[in-house]
Design goal:
There is one protein chain. The chain has 303 residues and is α+β, with helices and mostly antiparallel strands. It is built from eight helices and five strands, in the order H-H-E-E-E-E-E-H-H-H-H-H-H. It has helices at residues 28-36, 38-46, 131-145, 181-194, 199-210, 216-232, 237-260, 263-269; strands spanning 51-55, 60-65, 71-75, 93-97, 105-110. It has a five-stranded antiparallel beta sheet with strand order 1-2-3-4-5.
Length: 303
């Protein structure tokens, strides 16, 4: 797994905090755990917060280093441990702690299922294992504490919006263009990429796909995660199996974004192709004269 190499000269690119620097980063088991948690780590790294994966009491956790040397622990259920796959628990609990100050212990977010039947439901509990409300809660609390190294990435793209897709199909109601509008939009983006006149133009289009919070891959990961949650609602064995497959798909997509996040910078750094100079055009050739003069027609006598 290569270290990040962001381009500091590009103000429009979201710079990610560096990857952890320890020997486990090169192992397959750690890389697999990292892949399963990129929906948590990538948004936080986009805010300048270094993250790592560690083993807690009975399950793997995400440790987030804060600028004041305190840290966040983002944990699935530990006691009893969750029987769900890493990165896809039934809920998360986030605590803020300080290795040098045992008095600092704060529960920042808690969407774990309540074990006390007499306790009222917590507001976060309805979100379960979803990542987006967790990140929003951390944004709010860390902003209050002044512990966000980088501003929250804006939902407004710095690049022009793509042209509207050309209607191709009809949905079930007969409305043209609705059935495959998202595919058409991506097809339009591909056409624009094919016609890009410079690496910088191509990089701007890559930004739409690879931006780590609002780009296509990030949102596609959210889509498959939501589809997995929907499959669980059936409460059937196949529904749970399908939810695991969809959660794996979401993790794969997020991992792809993690691997390719520097592709925009690399594209922008390429040297634009300079068109080859055109040879000066030769003067138009005069019509060549016939090699022999045409035979003169005998003149007619006039009266």
């Amino acid at each position: 797994m290569a270290a990040d190499e962001p381009n500091p000269t590009d103000a429009h690119t979201t710079l990610l905090a560096p990857l952890p620097d320890h020997q486990d980063v090169q192992t397959r088991w750690w890389q697999e755990l990292w892949r399963r948690h990129t929906h948590i780590t990538t948004p936080l790294r986009a805010r300048g917060l270094p993250c790592d994966i560690e083993f807690g009491l009975s399950a793997y956790i995400v440790r987030v280093t804060l600028p004041d040397d305190s840290y966040l622990i983002i944990s699935p259920p530990q006691d009893p441990p969750s029987d769900r796959r890493p990165g896809d628990p039934e809920g998360w609990i986030v605590t803020r702690e300080d290795p040098d100050d045992e008095r600092l212990f704060e529960v920042v977010y808690d969407s774990l299922p309540s074990e006390d039947p007499g306790a009222g439901p917590r507001p976060e509990a309805r979100h379960g294992g979803s990542a987006e409300p967790l990140i929003e809660a951390l944004d709010h609390r860390l902003a209050q504490l002044g512990l966000l190294p980088a501003p929250v990435p804006s939902h407004a793209s710095p690049h022009p919006t793509p042209a509207q897709p050309t209607p191709r199909a009809q949905d079930a109601t007969g409305a043209p263009g609705a059935a495959y509008a998202y595919g058409d939009a991506l097809r339009d983006l591909t056409d624009r990429l094919n016609g890009a006149e410079s690496p910088a133009d191509a990089a701007a289009l890559l930004h739409r796909i690879l931006e780590p919070t609002d780009g296509l891959l990030a949102q596609l990961g959210e889509f498959f995660e939501a589809a997995g949650e929907k499959a669980k609602e059936a409460e059937e064995d196949d529904g749970f199996d399908l939810s695991y497959d969809l959660a794996d798909a979401a993790a794969e997509i997020r991992h792809l974004g993690e691997v390719l996040h520097v592709a925009e910078d690399r594209m922008r750094a390429l040297t634009p192709l300079t068109p080859a100079p055109r040879a000066p055009s030769a003067p138009a050739r005069a019509r060549s004269l016939p090699s022999t003069a045409p035979t003169a027609s005998p003149s007619r006598r006039t009266r």
